[in-house]
Design goal:
Blueprint: H1 3-9, H2 11-22, H3 34-51, E1 54-58, E2 65-70, E3 78-84, E4 104-106, E5 109-111, H4 115-134, E6 141-147, H5 157-163, E7 172-175, E8 179-180, E9 187-192, E10 194-203, E11 209-210, H6 211-214, H7 221-230, H8 253-260, H9 266-273, H10 286-292, E12 295-303, E13 313-314, E14 317-326, H11 332-345, E15 352-357, E16 365-366, H12 372-385, E17 390-394, H13 400-408, E18 412-414, E19 418-419, E20 430-432, H14 433-450
Parallel strand pairs: 3-6, 3-7, 7-18, 8-19, 9-17
Antiparallel strand pairs: 1-2, 2-6, 4-5, 5-20, 9-16, 10-14, 10-15, 11-13, 12-14
Helix pairs in contact: 1-4, 2-4, 3-4, 4-14, 5-13, 12-14
């Protein structure tokens, strides 16, 4: 039996394994789910063992890391695969058509939190390796580093990589936290943006006040928050924080021409996202804005009374969360300091400011298009889809990529099968079963090609 037949024969069992993995609510951001995150790590390690790997669950100062190894060939190269098993929160349950941790197959899609980001991708890689091991086809050493804190910025993974650098020694690195352009158009990502963020509080009176008694005399923290948030951007869509663009290099004519060659159907994309029109920094195309330029986004604002009916109060406090996506040469710590200085400088009267930076940020990551593993990935995708992949960059962030490059000495090459429309981080997240199966074949083909 060859590996393709092995995969085909086991798809029903593989789907059940995938359902089991998805049913574990491994939400890294919420302490109430700590035991579930640990349960997911144990389940994944055991599934790697079933596939033929030696696998261990390693504790960290936060959530555990799963390290799996299949290394029978002392004279052959070693590939390290990076992924994560933690998922985003599944808030707003009323917006989910099915319970987020009761995986449901609907119209060829499996709906569950973490299906696309990125339990489906981790499973596709694991199952591809299993098929090659079972059919004695894998002529390559393989290690898998699967963390449980990617969705909160990977705060403890750098220390783990440093401590276990010898165990993680390899000749090439694959980042599975990636995707394709569409069901018919493959993609090779040559980089991701960096990230940093902060949360801040505006503190007014010591307690909520009656708005009839004190309105117009005491600053309302929500009014101050609206004013402060509005100060962060100019009318042309650019970020108004002083110094924000100081290290940003202008897009070269060659790079802008490269961006222009990437497919973009504005009408189709607007319809998919449900927005009446696009808005962003003036003078740049869509792909330039979402992958080549830095941004500052408000991710949440809250305060006051939000329950049914009305409650006429001036709230004691108001709050917001902000993240920035960064491009090469921008330093995350410096950007946080600049945003904090802007908030202090533009603070309205009558409130106090408290700022907390997110636990970890990460710089942008870029790599060469002529990297040999990139070339192998392009060949596999061309064979898999029947057309060559589009080269682009992702606007999102994978915080650990720069760390892996620095500590292990290899550029992580992104190779995954998620699609942009799969509602990642949103209610009703899903993963196409066709992508699940294509991912298994794609990873198997890549492992075989890299073993040559």
């Amino acid at each position: 039996m060859d590996w393709r037949e092995y995969l085909a024969r086991h798809q029903a069992a593989y789907l059940e394994d995938f359902r089991t993995f998805l049913s574990i609510p491994s939400i890294s951001a919420q302490p109430a789910y700590q035991a579930e995150v640990q349960r997911a790590a144990r389940w994944l390690a055991e599934r790697f063992r079933k596939a033929g790997f030696a696998a261990e669950v390693y504790p960290t100062q936060g959530h555990p890391v799963v390290l799996a190894e299949y290394t029978p060939y002392p004279d052959r190269p070693t590939l390290l695969y990076y992924g994560h098993y933690d998922v985003q929160p599944a808030d707003n349950p009323e917006r989910w058509r099915t319970p987020p941790f009761e995986p449901t197959v609907v119209d060829g899609r499996i709906v569950a939190r973490g299906a696309s980001d990125m339990k489906g991708q981790v499973m596709a890689f694991l199952l591809a390796a299993e098929a090659l091991i079972a059919t004695q086809s894998l002529g390559l050493n393989v290690k898998a580093l699967i963390e449980g804190e990617e969705e909160v910025g990977s705060p403890h993974l750098p220390a783990f990589v440093e401590e276990h650098r010898e165990r993680l020694r390899c000749d090439m690195v694959i980042n599975g936290d990636s995707g394709q352009l569409s069901e018919t158009t493959p993609l090779i990502s040559l980089g991701v943006r960096g990230i940093c963020g902060l949360e801040f509080d505006l503190l007014g009176p010591s307690h909520d006040l009656h708005s009839g008694s004190w309105g117009g005399q005491v600053q309302n923290p929500l009014h101050a928050l609206a004013e402060l948030i509005a100060s962060l951007h100019r009318k042309d869509g650019s970020v108004a924080v002083r110094g924000f663009y100081d290290e940003v290099e202008p897009l070269s004519p060659e790079l802008r021409e490269w961006y222009r060659r990437i497919p973009w159907n504005e009408e189709e994309m607007r319809a998919r996202l449900g927005v009446p029109e696009f808005y962003g920094e003036e003078g740049y195309t869509a792909w330039e804005r979402i992958t080549g330029r830095p941004t500052l986004e408000v991710n949440g604002m809250w305060g006051g009374y939000t329950g049914p009916g009305s409650m006429t109060v001036i709230p004691a406090s108001a709050h917001a969360k902000i993240t920035c996506r960064l491009v090469p040469h921008q330093d995350p710590e410096r950007i946080v300091a600049l945003v904090k200085a802007h908030l202090e400088e533009h603070l309205p009267k009558g409130v106090r400011l408290e700022v907390r930076a997110m636990e970890s940020g990460a710089p942008a990551f870029r790599m060469r298009a002529d990297h040999p593993v990139v070339q192998a990935a392009k060949e596999v995708l061309t064979e898999l889809y029947g057309v060559p992949p589009v080269e682009t960059m992702f606007g999102g962030s994978v915080p650990i990529l720069s760390t892996l490059k620095r500590m292990l000495g290899h550029d992580p090459v992104s190779f995954g099968f998620a699609l942009e429309d799969e509602l990642i981080h949103s209610p009703n997240e899903f993963f196409r079963l066709s992508s699940f199966e294509r991912g298994q074949r794609g990873y198997a083909m890549l492992l075989l090609r890299l073993a040559r």
